[in-house]
C-alpha cells in the first residue's frame, strides 16, 4: 500500500514509476494476442515515381501468407492526415517518398511476413524527385501534389507595426542566415499496435498513440468504418514527442483487421522503418534581419522561414505557423515582418515534434540577439533583459499578452546564478588546447492549440464500489507524466493517499474526447476539467456523508483517506459505505473545460489556416558552459542551466524531468542529431548512424523553477512546459561557441567538423 | 532444438529454433515482456539482460547461446535486495518517464551494483553508456543508481 499523501506542490513519485521499474507496465508493443496475424507494409524504394503494377500473386501464394492488400482493397478515401488529408494509406497512383507504402501483407508468423513482403513485385516508373527547397520552389518544378501550386503546402505572413519601414529608424542592423537539420523523435518504442474487427463490424485497436479520439476520425475517413464503431485503447507510450500524434500504424492496422476475419492483427515498425516512414522534425532555412536603436531597444525584425515538410502535409502548415508566431523571440519588437513557406519535397514526411517549428526559429533569433549584442558592444544578457516581454506587451505577432509572462524573471534568476556571475573566472581557467565559452538563450513556447481550434477536455472520475477513486484519463501519457499529475490533482482535492486514487489510460469507450496529448496542453486542459469533476464528486460525497451522519450542513466534515470524518463529533463514514449508498451514476462525475482563446485577434497574420494566435506561453532562460577542443573541434558541454516559467509547479520532480529531458533532446539537436537524406534516401536509418545523446554526452542539467506568478487560468496555477526546454540548447551552444572562439556557426548541428572548419576559417 | 537454462532462478526448457533471437524467445514465447526491443541491432540497450551475470543484448543473442546459462531479466529484480533497491531508487528519484529504457537501464545498473564498489557519477554514466534514454537526460537515472550504490555498497 502506498499511503503517501498526494499533495499539489510536492515531488510525489509518479504513479506509473513502480510498474515501469518492475517491467510490468504494458505498452502497445508488449501485446501479442493469442493467434494473432502479423502485418507489414511493403514500401517504395523510389522517392518519386508512378505505379505501373503491384503483383501480389507470388507473395499471396506463399505458405503462411494470409492476404496481400493494395490500394484497390481500400474502400473509402484511402487518405489520412490530421487536417490536410493528402497521405494515402496505400499508394494508388504515385509514390512521393522513399518509404511510401504500396502493399500490406498479413501472415501467420513474422518469418512468413518477411517472405511475403519480399515476394511482392513492384513496378514503378521513376519520376524526377525534388529533394531540397530550391528545386521544389523552382518555377518549372513538377508538382508533388497536383492541387498544390508551387509545391507550397502553406505560405503565410505576419506584419506588425510598420513592418519593414521599421528599419528606417534603426541605428544598428544585423543580418544572418541559418539552417537546422531534420530531427527524428527516436522514441524507444517504435510505432506499434494490435487490432481486430469485432462481431458487430466495429474495430478495436490498442495502439501507441498521442491522439486516440482523433484516430477514430482518421481511420473512419480512410477506411470507411463508422467512427462510432471504432474503439481505441491507448496504453502508456514508450515515448512520443509528437511523432505519434496522428496516424502511424493506425490506418494500416485497421485495413489489415478489415481483412483478417476477426482475428487479431499485430503491427510494429522496426527501427529502420520508424526512421524512414515515421514523421520527423522539419528541416528549416532562415533569413533574419534585426534592427535596434543605439541603446539596444529592438525596433524591427524581418524573418523569412522555409520549412521542408517532405512528401505529405501532416501538420506542416501548423508547424510553420507556430514557428512564425515565435520568430521574434520573447521580446518587444514594434515592427515586424515574418514570412513563412512550407514546402513539399520528396523527402520523408515531417510533422509534429516537441517545440513544433519553434526550436528552428529560436536558433535564428537567439543567434541574432548575440550578433546584435556584439555589434552594440552590449552584454548579451542586458540586451535580453532590456527587451524582454512583460505582461501587457505585444509579442512579435502583435498579440497583447494577458497571461503570466515570466521571461524577465527567468533572466533575472539566471543573472544571479554563479554560472553567470563567475563566468569570466570560469572561462579564464580553460585547460590547454581548449577554449571555454558561455552561451545564453531566451526561450518561449506557446501552450494550447491556438485560435480557431477548440482546445477542450472532458474528465471523468468515479468512486468505485471498493471505496477508491478511478480517473478515466483521456489524454495519453507518452512519458511526460500527465497521468501522475492527474492522480495528484484528484488526490489533493479529495485528500486521498496514492493507494486510493487509480487511473485508467485512455479508452474511447469509457473516456470522453479531450484532444491530443500535445501542444503543452495535456495536463493543463484535462487537469482543469478534472478539477471540476473532482470538486463535484467531493461535494456529492460530503452531502451523502452529511445525510448519513444526520448533520445539518457540511461544517466540520472533511474527506480523509478512505473516509469522511465529522471532526467535532469524530463520527465517520467510510468511502466503501458511501459507495454502497450511492447509485452507480451518482458515483461518476464529469467535468468539462475549454482553454482560453484570444478575443481580440490582431489583424497581423495572413495565410494562417488555424492555430493563431496563442494566449499562454511557457518561458525559459538557458545558459550553457562548454569547452571547444581547438585541435578536433569537439564540443564538451560542461554544465547546463535552465530557469523555466511554468506558472505554479505541481510536482517539482516531474517539472525537472520535463526540463532535463527537453534540454537533452535539444543538446542532441545542437551537437549531433543530423537525420540525413540524399536524393530521398535515408542515410541514417539506425542508432549507429543517427546518433542521439548517451549518458556521457549530457552534462548535469540544473533546472530551476522561476519564482514568478502562477498562471491564473491553469490547474492550480500551472501551465505547460513540456516543449519550451527543447528550444534553448542549439542557440545557447552556438552562442557559447561564438563566445569561446569568436566563430558564429549558423548551421546545425554543431558537429566537430563544422566547429573545426569554423575555427580554421 | 531443446534449450535448457535457468531463467530468473527457474529451470526452463524451450523447444525453439536454435537461431531464434533471445528477445523474441523471452517476449513472445515466454511472455516476459519486461525486456524491450528499441532497435534490434544492439545499439540502444533496451533489451539488456544478464547472462551468467554479464550484461548482454537479447536482440543480438540467439537461443542456443543460452544453453546451460543463468539468465536474469527485469522480472527478477524483485527477488533480490539489490534489485529492489534499484527499482525503488528509480521510482523515487524520478528516473522513470516513458519507462521503455528502464528495464535495460536497471539490468545494466544491477551489473554495476554487483561489483560492490563505490562508484562516482562519471563511473555510473560510463556503465550506462550503452543504454539510450530519450526522455530523461540521464540526470535522474544517475541519481537513482548513485542512491542504489550507496544503499547496497555500505562499505
Give the count of helical stretches of chain B: 5
Task: Report the CATH superfamily of the largest domain in chain B.
Answer: [2Fe-2S]-binding domain
CATH class of the largest domain in chain B: Mainly Alpha
Structural class by SSE content of chain B: alpha+beta
Radius of gyration of chain B, Cα only, in angstroms?
A: 15 Å
In short:
The complex is a heterodimer of chains A (about 750) and B (about 160). Chain A is of the alpha+beta class.
Please tell me about this protein's structure.
The complex is a heterodimer of chains A (761) and B (155). The longest helix of chain A has 27 residues, at 522-548. Chain A has 761 residues and is α+β, with helices and mostly antiparallel strands. In chain A, strands 3-7-1-15-12-13-14 form a seven-stranded mixed sheet, with helices on both faces. A six-stranded mixed sheet of chain A has the order 10-17-18-19-9-28. Chain A is built from 19 helices and 33 strands. Chain A is 26% helix and 26% strand. In chain A, strand 22 (469-472), helix 14 (482-494) and strand 23 (501-504) form a beta-alpha-beta unit. Chain A folds into three domains: 17-26 and 456-594, 2-Layer Sandwich (Aldehyde Oxidoreductase, domain 4); 31-127 and 191-268, Alpha-Beta Complex (Aldehyde Oxidoreductase, domain 3); 283-450 and 601-760, Aldehyde oxidase/xanthine dehydrogenase, molybdopterin binding domain (Aldehyde Oxidoreductase, domain 4), CATH 3.30.365.10. In chain A, helix 9 packs parallel to helix 18 and helix 14 (482-494) packs parallel to helix 15 (522-548). By secondary structure, chain B is an alpha+beta fold. Chain B folds into two domains: 2-75, Beta-grasp domain (Ubiquitin-like (UB roll)), CATH 3.10.20.30; 77-153, Orthogonal Bundle (DNA polymerase, domain 1). In chain B, strands 2-1-5-3-4 form a five-stranded mixed sheet, with helices on one face. The model of chain B has no long low-confidence stretch (mean pLDDT 97). Chains A and B meet through helix 1 and helix 17 of A and helix 1, helix 2, helix 3, helix 4 and helix 5 of B.
